[in-house]
């Protein structure tokens, strides 16, 4: 599977494009899937839809009752002798009207509540699913997808899917009922007048759907532009020190303005589209109303219909006005759910590249021997660029392997392969003879700990950060880990000690403090293999020595891999690997490598030669 | 009450925690509570501040308010026209066709005006709101470019982003709705007026339902508001936790925290569900109440109006008009209720926005600040500098040293001793508490920050790269730098080869924060960026910490020419890096304890020589007492 993957220049695969591309095409499938999710709450769905039907029916009764009341009044007014009966009838109409209104209110409440409840429940389920998926997706996915895009999916797209039931499905039922039955009633009472009253419906329905689809399409575009804008802002704020260091505020404002103008222009266009549409819709509605008034009035004059009936017609029209305008919103909701849904489901269905094999077993560690067997590797998405080539080495429990090499030679990559952050492309990595790809991921990650080169610290207390990998730990253990990492004294000096909240990504710490915190949190784990990836670069030699002393106890029971540029950090290793361009070019103990007189020796010389031996042309330019 | 509810729920969930499912020391997401969630619905101060942004568009505001009033007027007139048509055109017995035609004509005119007014108002308001939104955001972003770094250190990017986006958006919503509110209020008063005008008694009777509504709302409002706010807050808490999971996913996976985090996140998502359901209840409970009141009002009109008609005291058309008005009557009330919560949210947002705009700019150019010319000598001097991030805990204490033009001086010392902080002062990221920092002979506080920044280039300890190509990153804001200069800089730092190996070379896209490069490579690029900036003073804060000594030596060789005549300030823990410096300053606990060149310091046998020896000597060779001494020296960092 592997050697082909390396040499051949496969097309870079961009997962984000993948996620986005899924947005088109299979809209119906997406809607069906959302509906299936909704149906997992059958009672609430049933209550919502049932209430909708009843509420719509009741709402349609209101104009009838009003019309009746007006007719009764007029009848009573015309024929004086029936006055008493009419008055009674009026009372009945009034009470009926009150009853119907109240009931309608109650059922509308239940309709809205249950519709929202369904939405919130699937919102909850989707949130969990999303969170879990994002947590589990492998590094290669996160390398290729910008965090801002994931945030958009997890927040905005999720809303679109969540709202589908209330703003799409329930509204559709409501609109079908109101418009369908309303139209039937109108036409069946008086064909011509009914058709006139409804004349605005097709126009408005069509206009608003077209507009909403247009808005939808531009919405995606706008979203794109806004995400550029938010990226500009986010990177500016995240890299504020760089911005300040280069006094480039003016340039950053320029970047901001460009992105901002770009989005603003489109936002204005969208306002135009929207407003042109709503005003035209209102106009067409009122126009139809005017026609009904004119023709209906003529009919009343001709004695064909009563004033009450005309009132019914006009009332119906006011009732229909809202639902007809809402057709557009409903269409929008469908379109939104299908685009948002396919992006969201695209994420949820994303294959997790690194996962347990079907026959995966928990790792069983006895000897605790780590072996690299002819490992080769290239980063997913850049398969044309081999990063590791035929890397082999072995380390037994208690042993330390040191890795040195120029930047980009693949040292961190080795560190990433052991806990299976990425899978090797060729060869194998084994722990006690078990291929790590055959072990369960949880057991592997428990056995392998990596102190990462640019570690992420959480915005929480120092204590919580240290205990991140073992939140059940006792306080004493946390302190011990912190002592071993030479952090304890510093923390005690802080006004709030271990409860001090470290700023975002640890900004309020010095470089070395950050690294020591990272070391401390790794010391909380009890792995069989521990990798220190350049994790003392910002720590002075004395502090580092003390860390190493503390570590000696720790290292006895495990394999330790130390990646470092400062040779004093790894000169005591049982084996030192010199990596260059992904290949081990020299290996052996410190003395052996010195004796060999190769690259390692050159490096050593550079680091230990006393100052006066440095050729003068390097002087004065310590940059 | 919603609060109480949330409280109960918390307690219930806490029980679960006790049975061992939830670890004691674990949280997801930032646990700082979003401040000032429960604001007033109207805060004149905030309104004033927001008004400042609307002011440039006041002509438009006037036009749109006028349009809204016209629009409302036509809304009011339409039922009157219908009434006219019924009463004068089609009353049995006194049919009048011209009246009907007249009514139809008036109707047409009314809806044309209605159309024009609504179009004008919505277009004007819609665009204005967008403009104001972008203006506010620009003002905030611009302000954030100037506020002191100590504010930025304390504030999470995510929090600022939510202000720049969420809060700004709710201001937009607010602007749009407040114009509509004007219309709604006008409509409400208009309807009341017309009803009273049509028939005073019937009007009064109908309006009698209003006090009931107000009393109900009086009870409803505070609870509903709490419920809405709680929903809003749990939502942002859950979103914050999600954002953390996305940014910190690598740490989460490497420490296998997925399971625990999932359980914790479930708590937050569940709280979010609960509060939203509660909020939905509160939002919906008003529906049947309003509908019942509508029903009562209509019943009153039918019974009372009906009997008045029968007595001949009322035209039937008036009764029909009343029925129309009642149906329209509750619309503005309903939307005003909605707008009230929009308003409230907007006030909370407005508060947060003005908070950002009000962050004091501690580090500011003086009115008569001088421009630091590129011809200045490039000297840097610290005169008795005392500085701390919080005034009580000084990080630098009475530090004095001078770097002469063209000299290279190294800063050495245990971690946390204040080296990076000292460099931050050269750039005036922060202001000193005592003493002075002089660049080119001028106190940095007397210079414009812009010109200072152009003359001091820094390679920061944490390399930060922007999304974009390699070229854009190295080039950065130096518009006059050519592609050749960029390539030359990349070659000088030894980055050229690996850049060329990327698909696309200099035009290869970098991942988020340069994630598809190794850390050393990122450092090289940020080094190259500092070279392209072409400044008189170069500050290298651990610029080669993640780079091997061989590559480093190549860089040093290449730099000799590039840096001729420039002043260098170098920080390094790997002492080999700074061995060649003209002078070495050893810092400990924020104090200078030694200065001299390498040979002098070695001869002195102080901290430097100890550190230096530790640097290369085998651990076993170090006598215990040296180690002991260094433990004592170093541990109080
Ligand atoms: N932004 C900040 N806010 C608050 N405290 C800070 C901030 N930056 C640094 N500190 C504190 O100031 C002290 C000095 O930090 P500084 O970064 O200057 O150390 P340093 O000498 O550069 O150390 P290192 O070698 O580890 O990078 C440390 O105790 C650190 O915790
Ligand atoms: N996520 C990634 N996607 C694509 N390429 C990557 C990724 N991470 C690293 N690389 C590339 O792989 C190569 C090896 O990187 P690695 O991080 O292993 O280097 P390293 O030896 O640790 O270097 P350093 O000393 O700078 O830390 C580099 O050329 C780098 O550009
Ligand atoms: Mg690395
Ligand atoms: Mg530092």
Structure characterization notes:
The complex is a heterodimer of chains A (623) and B (637). With 623 residues, chain A is of the alpha/beta class. Chain A contains 22 helices and ten strands. Chain A has a six-stranded mixed beta sheet with strand order 6-7-8-3-9-10. The longest helix of chain A is centred in the N-terminal third of the chain and has 54 residues. Chain A folds into three domains: 211 residues, ABC transporter transmembrane region fold (Up-down Bundle); 110 residues; 242 residues, P-loop containing nucleotide triphosphate hydrolases (Rossmann fold). Chain A starts with a helix and ends in a 15-residue tail after the last helix. The N terminus and C terminus of chain A are likely disordered. With 637 residues, chain B is α/β, with parallel strands linked by helices. Chain B folds into two domains: 317 residues, ABC transporter type 1, transmembrane domain (ABC transporter transmembrane region fold), CATH 1.20.1560; 253 residues, Rossmann fold (3-Layer(aba) Sandwich), CATH 3.40.50. Chain B contains 21 helices and twelve strands. In chain B, strand 4 and strand 5 form a beta hairpin. In chain B, helix 1 runs antiparallel to helix 10 and helix 6 runs antiparallel to helix 11. Bound molecules: adenosine-5'-triphosphate (2 copies) and magnesium ion (MG) (2 copies).
């Amino acid at each position: 599977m592997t050697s082909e993957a390396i040499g051949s220049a496969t097309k870079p695969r961009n997962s984000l494009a993948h996620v986005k591309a899924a947005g088109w095409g299979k809209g119906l499938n997406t809607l069906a899937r959302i509906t299936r999710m909704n149906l997992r709450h059958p009672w609430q769905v049933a209550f919502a839809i049932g209430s909708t039907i009843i509420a719509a029916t009741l709402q349609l009764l209101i104009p009838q009752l009003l019309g009746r009341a007006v007719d009764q009044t007029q009848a009573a007014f015309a024929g004086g002798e029936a006055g008493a009966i009419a008055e009674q009838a009026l009372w009945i109409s009034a009470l009926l009207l009150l009853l119907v209104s109240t009931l309608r209110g109650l059922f509308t409440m239940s309709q809205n509540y249950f519709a929202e409840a369904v939405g919130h429940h699937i919102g909850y389920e989707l949130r969990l699913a999303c969170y879990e998926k994002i947590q589990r997706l492998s590094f290669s996915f996160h390398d290729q997808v910008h965090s801002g895009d994931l945030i958009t999916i997890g927040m905005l797209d999720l809303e679109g899917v969540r709202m589908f039931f209330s703003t799409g499905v329930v509204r559709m039922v409501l609109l079908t009922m109101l418009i369908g039955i309303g139209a039937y009633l109108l036409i069946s009472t008086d064909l011509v007048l009914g058709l006139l009253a409804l004349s605005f419906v097709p126009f408005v329905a069509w206009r608003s759907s077209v507009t909403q689809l247009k808005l939808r399409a531009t919405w995606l575009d706008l979203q794109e532009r806004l995400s550029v804008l938010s990226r500009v802002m986010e990177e500016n704020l995240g890299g504020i020190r760089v911005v300040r260091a280069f006094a480039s505020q003016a340039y950053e404002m320029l970047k901001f303005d460009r992105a901002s103008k770009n989005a603003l222009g489109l936002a204005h266009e969208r306002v135009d589209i929207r407003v042109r549409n709503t005003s035209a819709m209102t106009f067409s509605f009122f126009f139809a109303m005017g026609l009904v008034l004119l023709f209906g009035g003529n009919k009343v004059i001709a004695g064909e219909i009563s004033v009450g009936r005309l009132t019914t017609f006009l009332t119906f029209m006011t009732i229909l006005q809202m639902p007809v305008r809402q057709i557009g919103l409903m269409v929008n909701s469908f379109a939104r759910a299908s685009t948002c849904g396919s992006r969201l489901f695209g994420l949820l269905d994303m294959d997790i590249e690194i996962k347990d094999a079907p026959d995966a077993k928990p790792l069983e560690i006895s000897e605790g021997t780590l072996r690299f067997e002819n490992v080769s590797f290239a980063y997913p998405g850049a398969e044309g660029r081999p990063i590791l080539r035929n890397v082999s080495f072995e380390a037994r429990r208690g042993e330390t392997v040191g890795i040195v090499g120029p930047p980009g030679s693949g040292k961190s990559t080795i560190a990433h392969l052991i806990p299976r952050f990425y899978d090797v492309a060729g060869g194998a990595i084994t722990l006690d003879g078990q291929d790590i790809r055959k072990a369960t991921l949880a057991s592997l990650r428990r056995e392998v700990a990596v102190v990462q080169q640019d570690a992420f610290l959480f915005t929480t207390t120092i204590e919580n950060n240290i205990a991140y990998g073992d939140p059940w730990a006792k306080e004493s253990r946390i302190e011990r880990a912190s002592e071993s990492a030479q952090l304890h004294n510093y923390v005690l000096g802080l006004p709030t000690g271990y409860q001090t909240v470290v700023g975002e990504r640890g900004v309020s710490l010095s470089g070395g403090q950050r690294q020591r915190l990272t070391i401390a949190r790794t010391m909380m784990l009890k792995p069989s293999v521990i990798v220190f990836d350049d994790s003392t670069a910002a720590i002075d030699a004395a502090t580092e020595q003390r860390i190493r002393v503390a570590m000696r106890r720790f290292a006895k029971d495990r394999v330790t891999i130390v990646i470092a540029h400062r040779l004093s950090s790894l000169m005591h290793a049982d084996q030192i690997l010199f990596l260059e361009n992904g290949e081990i070019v020299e290996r052996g103990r410190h003395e052996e490598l010195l004796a060999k007189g190769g690259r390692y020796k050159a490096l050593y010389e550079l680091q230990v030669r006393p100052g006066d031996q440095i050729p003068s042309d390097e002087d004065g330019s310590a940059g | 009450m919603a609060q109480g509810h949330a409280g109960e729920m918390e307690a219930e969930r806490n029980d679960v925690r006790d049975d061992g499912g939830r670890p004691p020391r674990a949280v997801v997401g930032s646990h700082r509570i979003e401040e000032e969630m429960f604001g007033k619905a109207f805060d004149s101060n905030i309104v004033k501040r927001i008004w400042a942004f609307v002011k440039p568009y006041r002509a438009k505001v006037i036009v749109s308010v006028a349009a809204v009033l016209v629009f409302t007027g036509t809304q009011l007139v339409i039922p009157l026209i219908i009434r006219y048509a019924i009463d004068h055109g089609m009353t049995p017995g006194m049919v009048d066709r011209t009246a009907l035609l007249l009514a139809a004509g008036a109707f047409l005119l009314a809806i044309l005006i209605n159309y024009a007014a609504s179009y004008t108002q919505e277009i004007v308001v819609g665009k204005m709101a967008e403009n104001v939104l972008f203006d506010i955001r620009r003002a905030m972003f611009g302000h954030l470019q100037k506020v002191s770094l100590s504010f930025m250190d304390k504030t999470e990017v995510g929090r600022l982003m939510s202000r720049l986006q969420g809060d700004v958006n709710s201001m937009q919503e607010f602007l749009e709705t407040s114009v509509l509110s004007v219309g709604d209020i006008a409509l409400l008063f208009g309807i009341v007026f017309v009803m009273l005008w049509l028939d005073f008694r019937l009007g009064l009777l109908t309006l009698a339902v209003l006090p009931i509504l107000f009393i109900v709302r009086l009870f409803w409002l505070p609870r509903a508001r709490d419920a809405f706010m709680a929903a809003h807050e749990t939502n942002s808490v859950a979103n914050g936790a999600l954002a953390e999971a996305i940014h910190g996913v690598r740490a989460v996976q490497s420490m296998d925290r997925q399971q625990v985090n999932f359980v914790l996140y479930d708590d937050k998502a569940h709280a979010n569900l609960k509060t939203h359901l509660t909020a939905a209840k509160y939002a919906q409970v008003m529906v049947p109440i309003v509908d019942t009141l509508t029903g009562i009002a209509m019943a009153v009109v039918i019974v009372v109006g009906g009997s008045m008609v029968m007595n001949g005291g009322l035209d039937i058309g008036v009764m029909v008009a009343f029925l129309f008005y009642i149906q329209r009557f509750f619309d503005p009330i309903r939307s005003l209720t909605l707008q009230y919560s929009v308003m409230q949210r907007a006030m909370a947002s407005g508060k947060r926005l003005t908070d950002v705009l009000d962050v004091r700019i501690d580090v500011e150019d003086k009115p008569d600040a001088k421009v630091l010319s590129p011809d200045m000598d490039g000297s840097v001097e610290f005169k008795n500098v005392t500085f701390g991030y919080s005034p009580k805990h000084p990080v630098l204490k009475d530090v004095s040293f001078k770097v002469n033009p063209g000299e290279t001086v190294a800063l050495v010392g245990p971690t946390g001793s204040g080296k990076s902080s000292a460099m931050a002062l050269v750039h005036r990221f922060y202001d000193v508490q005592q003493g002075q920092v002089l660049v080119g002979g001028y106190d940095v506080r007397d210079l414009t920050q812009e010109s200072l920044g152009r003359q001091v280039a820094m390679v920061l300890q944490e390399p930060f790269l922007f999304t974009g190509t390699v070229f854009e990153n190295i080039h950065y804001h130096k518009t006059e730098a050519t592609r050749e200069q960029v390539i030359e800089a990349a070659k000088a730092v030894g980055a050229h080869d690996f850049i060329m190996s990327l698909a696309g070379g200099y035009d290869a896209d970098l991942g988020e924060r340069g994630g598809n490069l190794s850390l050393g490579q990122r450092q090289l690029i940020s080094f190259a960026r500092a070279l392209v900036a072409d400044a008189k003073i170069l500050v290298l804060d651990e610029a080669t910490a993640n780079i091997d000594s061989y590559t480093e030596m190549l860089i040093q060789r290449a730099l000799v020419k590039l840096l001729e005549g420039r002043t260098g300030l170098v920080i390094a823990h790997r002492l080999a890096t700074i061995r060649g410096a003209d002078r070495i300053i050893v810092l400990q606990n924020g104090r200078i304890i030694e200065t001299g060149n390498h040979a002098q310091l070695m001869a002195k046998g102080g901290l430097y020589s100890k550190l230096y020896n530790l640097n290369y000597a085998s651990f076993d060779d170090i006598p215990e007492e040296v180690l002991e001494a260094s433990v004592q020296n170093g541990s109080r960092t």
